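FW: tagging you since you asked about this chain on Friday. Here's the raw sequence from the shared folder, copied in full. Didn't touch anything.
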Amino acid sequence: MRRAAHERGWPRTFMSAALFSALLDVACRAVFSAEPNAVPALAPLKIGLVLPPGEPEAESIRRGAEIGVRLAGLSLGREVELIVRGSPGQWGTEGDDAVALALDAGAQALVAPTLGTTVHLVEQVAGRTRIPVVSLCGDASVTGARIPWALRIVPTTADEARTLFAQSRVAPGKPVKRWAALVPTGRPGREAAKDLGLAAKAAGCEIMEVVMVPDTGDDFAALVKQATRASPEGLLLWLEPALAARLARAARDSNYAGLLAGSGRLSGPSFLKMAGPAVEGFHTTRPVQTPASATRREEFWAGYTAQFRDPPEPVAEAAADAVSLLATILREAGARPAFMSFPPREEQPGITGPLRFDATGNRLVELEIVVARNGRFERWD
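HL: got it, structure written out here
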């Protein structure tokens, strides 16, 4: 039997009214159950960390960034989220990691590690996307791209070398003028050798021999013999802590009696432990602390050791400073594009000392020499 038009439409009309009534009931319950003065929660500040498998201090960097994010959130009263990319096979290349962080994960700023090759790839992404980036690499070329929103949170290789060349002594009143250097293989080593050479020339010193240390192999005695064949007064170990420790032991086992020195990455507990007795008298650098920075450093050390049961490495402190600085800038920028706030104009207290930057993104930092004595690094006077 053919039904009337109003009968054919009745069930559809009834279902629409029922659905509307149910939705209205849900909406009313949500409204009346909400807090009367509730304020929408602010979205978390998202910071991406590019950490490729080849990064020798990846675990220390990740740990430092995690504690830095936590402390930044407490200080700023704002949730800060750390997004890490770089596991083997996850995204492929470091450039892909940076793109994924920026475009897929919604990172508002990036932290790049100690490897210069990775930093350059991340900076290419930052340059095109206008996403700020802070690097942990001391190579002079890192800020050579002149990207206004790219910073270096660590001292340059040249800054550290100049400090060592100016203040190191083989004996009271006798500065070290003739050096040799052990550096990484490939592009990192070439960059380090170039920066060390320029710093030596400016300081009136000479680097007599530069030897690249391969990633694999264990004939450290042969490498030391090659580096010291011209009898340098000082031997620079511009390497990551584990490799530097093995070469320091090899140098002393081969009866090399000159001064051993290296970058600030070696001023941490792992190098002290792995180098053993060979570390005695070793010279390196660290930023001069202010009272405000010393307080922040104590807070960081307390949080780090409580969670990981080990003292932090220098690179962990730098990573924490990087995420904290970025989080502060992102919060202060608000709706304004964060890249417009770079480089920062005001000094901030950091874990590694006051955070100040020049117009090209290089950190302006005062360094001091520390010397290994009795299993710890002490300020050298």
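FW: Residues 109 and 131 are 5 Å apart (CA to CA).
HL: agreed, and Confidence is low (pLDDT under 50) at residues 1-40, 88-92.
FW: great, closing this out.
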